[in-house]
Amino acid sequence: MTRMFSRILIANRGEIACRVIRTAQKMGVGTVAVYSDADATALHVAMADEAVHIGGSSVSESYLRADRIIQAAIDTGAEAIHPGYGFLSENPGFVDAVVKAGLVFIGPSADSIRAMGLKDAAKRLMEKAGVPVVPGYHGEAQELVVLASKAREIGYPVLIKARAGGGGKGMRKVDNPEDFAEALGSARREAKSAFGDDRVLVEKYVSKPRHIEVQVFGDNHGNAVHLYERDCSLQRRHQKVIEEAPAPDITVEMRAAMTAAAVKAAKAINYSGAGTIEFIVDASQGLRADGFWFMEMNTRLQVEHPVTEMITGLDLVEWQLRVAAGEPLPLTQKQIPLNGHAVEARLYAEDPAKGFLPAIGTLHHLTFPASVAEGTVRIETGVRPDDTISPYYDPMIAKIVVHAKDRPAALRAMEDALLQTEIAGTVTNAAFLAALVRHEGFAAGDVDTGLIDRDLHSLVVPVAMPAGAKELAVLHASGLLTKIASDDPWTALRGYSHHARSHYPVTLGEPGTSDAPGQTTRYGVAVLSDDRFEVATPDTAVELRVRRSGESWHITGKRINLTAKTAAIPQGVAVIARGVVATFALIDPLQRADEAGGAGDRLIAPMPGLVKSVRAAAGDLVKKGQILLVLEAMKMEHTITAPHDGKIAEIVKEGAQVKEKTALVRFEELETAELTNK
Questions:
Q1: Neighbouring residues of 529: CB distance < 8 A, sequence distance ≥ 6
Q2: What pTM was computed for the model?
Q3: Where do runs of H (alpha helix) occur along 503-650?
Q4: Residue 440 lies in a domain
Q5: Is residue 616 part of a domain?
Q6: Which domain does 538 fall in, by range?
């Protein structure tokens, strides 16, 4: 008789660590979290029963330190280690070390991971097991003449792939024989840098590829089952963006053939635990039972596993723990249900308009939907309001997952969920994801892995700022929307004055675009009555009515009818409407230098951001008010000026991503004569 673990350690961070902890708590299993310097106050640390510090902020100093993780498990009495995904999850050496320490690895054996770790060896193994593989060369010979010859035999276009790689690294498409040598060299250099192995394989390039994978599960008693398929074809740079289950338009015959091949693959390596068999599918003539080929196996739980859980009603992490504890699979193949349709979108702190550049920042306002109009919504996240997206790790904010009766309803539910998601403090890809869900081809199921790249220009169109957002930001900044609690009826009135109408000054910086910088405008706000205001510039004035509407404001006026929320952020205000976040900078013209963080011998970053340009260098003598650098944060450029005369000792590099309160400039102490003689 098997016994469930009393305590496990999760060798990961973020949303997957939180996900594992939730299931363990449900099962009555104690949890131990590990954390780096940057994650000391992270959600997964707060959720766990116990937490152990394992090193510095970089992954090489913490989450990749197998020795410290194993020692933490031993010291806290954990009996098993769950690796999550990424980091050490597919490292057979780590599995060996865990087992050697007398602990249980919640996942497959080291031998199974090794068998699938190298793409070429895995494909030879699958061929032997009778699993269809893409026509190609997976041999050991790596000479240019051999690989070029094999490419000609396969037929162009071909795909060069790093045999030890993943995530699109070391991968090159080659259309013509004369381009092969250069592409091979480039792929090898990238593979060597990313994986320490420059060996490659060459395969037939599929012209309209879809990425469909099958969730498999095995136990230590010789059983293996599948939990149906997921379509992960919506990708950018070979990274998944939106996943769904089941696959659109899949036929009964193709599902039967694909899932049978996946189970055959799992049994070929005596697989135990959760795994995913990834197939490349030729969709040029529709989905066919003879049009899919084995690509690779992920020997771990996948990021997108929640869509499988939604259509089956099962908890895959619970299955992982039970199998690792020695139990047989909880269900037979015939007992596994398939209900409805599920979609998952990966919400990132990144700027799609700038090549999906990661965007660090503090989540000053963060709200996820609790429900959607059609179906149900589930949020997988590892962050809370006021948490910071750091430069050290993947900038994922959350996985938004919806389930509905069918695919059209699920897509509508996903758009609803994305439009309800409210984030201020960093740039996100939420609008891009919503545009993708609305994409005509995707909605029709006509999808392949090249869809995003082909239509990127239409998917990253900036969402227009709604009429009234600027005026609402001005009113928020004035403080007049907040009623003062007082026994004095005059004081309790907003902006009441016994004499002439008072105008409250506000200077607002509007967000710019890649083509034009944002404008800075001075406003005056006057109170006309308890819910009526005038917002004026030197040239114009508009009368507005503002009423509370739940957690939002309803603002009306000439050509304005807007319901939105406001959120205070450092040096600014965010206006949040459905699907739109407009961020404005609040500027005190008399204290620009102080707002830049000038104090003594240092200039401190007022918020996380990207150093867009540097206008001075170490050794320069500068005067008070001189522009030193431009910091880009939340799609706005902030000019950082010298708070006093001085000589620069150090200044941040252009292109650096900086956290809030990072030192941007350090000044030297100078004699008065040195500045006078400048």
A1: none
A2: 0.83
A3: 592-595
A4: yes
A5: yes
A6: 469-586
Nearest-CA neighbor of 636 among 571, 562, 567, 565? 571
The Cα–Cα gap between 122 and 105 comes to: 22
Other CB atoms closer than 10 Å to residue 563's CB: what's the count?
A: 17
| Sequence-ordered list of residues with C-beta below 8 angstroms from that of 623, at least 6 positions apart, any chain | 642, 645, 678
Q: Which of 236, 300, 412, 494 is catalytic?
A: 300
> How many separate domains does the chain show?
6
Asked whether the bond before 369 is cis by omega within 30 degrees of 0, the reply is no
Largest interatomic CA distance in the chain: 92
| Cβ neighbourhood burial of 271 (10 Å; 0-12, 13-18, 19+) | buried
CA 210 centroid distance within chain: 22
Cβ-proximal residues to 509 (8 Å cutoff; 6+ apart), any chain: 518, 519, 520, 572, 584, 585, 586, 587, 636
Question: Mean of the per-residue pLDDT values for the chain?
Answer: 90
Identify whether residues 533 and 604 lie together within a single domain. no
Phi–psi pair at 495, nearest 5 degrees: 60, 25
- Residue 434 contacts residue 415 (beta carbons within 8 Å): yes
Direct distance between the N- and C-terminal alpha carbons of the chain, in angstroms, rounded to an integer: 84
Of 437, 460, 483, which marks where a domain is finished?
460
Q: pLDDT digits over 522-569, tens only?
A: 999 999 988 999 999 888 999 999 999 899 999 999 999 999 999 998
Helix axis angle, 92-100 to 66-76, nearest 10°: 30
Instruction: State mean pLDDT over 352-356.
Output: 87
Same domain, residue pair 214 and 330: yes
Pair 522, 455 in one domain: no
At 123 the pLDDT is: 86
At 492-513, the pLDDT tens digits run: 555 555 555 667 899 998 876 5
Q: What is the C-alpha to C-alpha distance for residues 118 and 121, in angstroms, rounded to an integer?
A: 6
Q: Give the chain's length.
A: 678
Does one domain contain both 265 and 282? yes
Q: Which residues contact 457 (CB under 8 A, 6 or more apart)?
A: none
User: By C-alpha distance, which of 574, 632, 587, 583 is closest to 607?
Assistant: 632
Residue with tokens 């902890």: 21
Least reliable range by pLDDT among 36-40, 63-67, 601-605, 659-663 = 659-663
Dihedral (C-alpha) 46, 48, 54, 58: value to the nearest 10 degrees? -60
Going by DSSP bridges, is the β-strand pair 7-10/80-82 parallel, antiparallel, or unpaired? Answer: parallel
- Is 300 an annotated catalytic residue? yes
Does the pLDDT of residue 600 top 80, yes or no? Answer: no
